Predict the structure.
Amino acid sequence: MGDERPDARPDVLLTGLLFYDLVLTGLGRPPTPGEEIWTEGMGTSPGGIANLAVAAARYGLKTSLATVFGDDYYGAHCRQVLAGQEHVDLSLSRTADGWHTPVTVSIAYGHDRALITHGQEPPYSQDALMGDPPAARTALVHLEAEPREWLAGAAANGTKIYADVGWDPSEQWSADLLDQLALCHAFLPNEAEAMAYTRTDTASGALRRLAELVPVAVVTRGGAGAVAVDQSTGEYAEVPALATDVLDATGAGDVFGASFVAASLEGWPLKERLRFAVLAAGLSVRRHGGALAAPGWYGVHRWWHSLDDPDLRRAYGFLADRLPADPGPPVPHAPVTPPAPHGFPDLP
């Protein structure tokens, strides 16, 4: 008889820098120096690596996060949201005495946003937090110029690594970074990043180059949707974006990545994985903030059952067989004023 014990590994392993986000939306125009502008909306939420953690956890995935919390109000609040509200495993995380949680003010304008951040480098590196990384079904990572030692350990223990990358402030776009793809199962950059690192001038050209380096290559294209190749199955897919009103684009790429992983763990065909990720990212930009804008099964379920557009119902018809019978309770979104965390008195 086969071994039918449940898989005790985390579904998703994460590490990275945590932020406390304050998001302002509804600007009629960008501010100018010396000017005060009142916005129409505001929300607060954990941010940074929390975007991926919450997006994954809201699909019911066992999510393990290694990060650093400051010993301040912001860190206590983020810890409570992640562990208490979203049920993210924080056993690999640490609270640093005398270190302040980085704070980001995100100013959403049009289909993009500007970020202003205050913070310092955390006292514990990703490698120190991870140590000998636990075996996991997948890891979602953000590649940087200097390779992290824990990635090789994770790849060696059978963890499938799904990676993205950020904007290079030096604008050198060193192709050496792509050497790290040898450790990865999938790579999900946006169009500008993909073309810059591959020295190509089209998304399709970048995708072809990346497909030579990693089994699953995905290039996200914002309002133009996404394209992908899965070399392990021989599939190619191209899907349009979800037409939607953008309130705040913060964290949409993280929601895309976590949703693509969730669908991949279920073994869906590539086109369904890509459509699902595009849909979830499109739903997230309708809400304030990054982490708490993630729709999860509840948000996708609600969207599908309220959909009356015949073209979209055909395109997303696969959801009828993919959605869980019980999508769970409504997911909380970013509040304007967060409650005082345990141990911090309410202000009078």
User: Anything to note?
Assistant: DSSP finds eleven helices and 14 strands in the chain. The mean pLDDT is 90. Residues 198 and 206 are 6 Å apart (CA to CA).
